[in-house]
Specification:
mainly alpha, about 240 residues, 2 domains, elongated
Length: about 240
C-alpha cells in the first residue's frame, strides 16, 4: 500500500482534506453555509460526536430527510477547523491559533472533550500573556499585544459564561497598564512611533495605535460592572495610579 508524506498530501489532488470531498461516506450529510460552501460529513460521525446532532438526526427534524443541515451565520472555515479537531484520523490540536474560533462551536454542539481542551488552552494562554508582560515591566509597548489577547479571551469567556476564566482574565488585565484599554495612552521611549510600529496578531501585522484602539473598543463593550471591577483592581494594585 502506498503512503504519502505530509508534503505530498498537501500537493496531491487525490488527497483532499477530510470533510471537503463529496462521496466519501455512505451516510453522508451536507453541512451548508450561508455562502453556499459545503462540508461533507458522516451522519454517524456527527451523532457520535455531538448530542445535539444526535437529537437532530434521531428525531423528526427536516434534516433527517434532506441529508443536509443549514448552518446559518456559521463560518465555513471555523466549522471545518472544529471538525478537524474531532476527526479520529487527524485530531488536530486545540491551540491559541484556533481556540477562540472553535470553542463557541464546541459549546453549541456540546462536545465535552473539545470544551475541556479549549478551557485548558485559554487558561494557559492567559497565564502565558501575563508572564510575558511581567518579564518586561516598565515599557507599555510590551504590554499592548498581551492586553489585546487577554481581552479577547475575556470576551469569549464572558459570552460562554466561563466564570473561572472570566475571573482569571479580569485579574490579569487589571495588572496591565490601564492606559492601553482605558484613558489616554502616551508612547514610551521605546515606542516613539506607535503609529507605524507593529505587532503580529492572528497572522496579521497591526500597528500599536490600532491595537490600542481595539483594546479600548473591546473594553467599552464589557458590562459596566466588569469594567468597574477591572479598574478597581488596577487601582488597588497601585495606589499612586491615576486613571485619566
Amino acid at each position: 500500500m502506498s503512503t504519502h508524506t505530509e508534503d505530498e498530501k498537501e500537493e496531491c489532488p487525490k488527497c483532499p482534506e477530510p470533510f471537503t470531498a463529496h462521496g466519501k461516506c455512505l451516510d453522508e450529510v451536507r453541512l451548508v453555509f450561508d455562502d453556499q460552501q459545503e462540508l461533507y460529513v458522516s451522519q454517524n460521525f456527527l451523532i457520535l460526536s455531538s448530542p445535539v446532532f444526535e437529537a437532530m438526526f434521531k428525531n423528526d427534524f427536516k434534516e433527517k430527510q434532506q441529508s443536509a443541515v443549514l448552518l446559518k451565520e456559521k463560518s465555513y472555515t471555523d466549522f471545518h477547523e472544529f471538525l478537524m479537531c474531532i476527526h479520529p484520523g487527524t485530531l488536530k490540536p486545540v491551540t491559541e491559533a484556533n481556540v477562540l474560533r472553535i470553542v463557541p462551536i464546541a459549546e453549541e454542539y456540546q462536545v465535552d472533550s473539545i470544551i475541556q481542551s479549549c478551557k485548558s488552552v485559554m487558561k494557559n494562554w492567559l497565564e502565558k500573556e501575563y508572564v510575558s508582560a511581567k518579564s518586561k515591566t516598565g515599557f507599555y509597548m510590551f504590554h499592548i499585544k498581551p492586553t489585546r489577547q487577554c481581552l479577547s479571551i475575556l470576551t469569549t469567556s464572558l459570552a460562554l459564561n466561563y466564570i473561572s476564566l472570566v475571573d482569571n482574565a479580569v485579574d490579569i488585565i487589571a495588572k496591565m497598564p490601564h492606559r492601553i484599554y482605558y484613558g489616554s495612552y502616551k508612547p514610551d521611549t521605546l515606542c516613539t512611533d506607535y503609529h507605524s510600529n507593529t505587532q503580529e496578531i492572528n497572522g496579521k501585522k497591526i500597528t500599536y495605535r490600532k491595537i490600542i484602539g481595539e483594546c479600548k473598543t473591546v473594553f467599552q463593550t464589557l458590562p459596566a460592572e466588569l469594567r468597574c471591577t477591572i479598574l478597581s483592581k488596577r487601582l488597588a494594585l497601585d495606589k499612586d495610579n491615576v486613571v485619566k
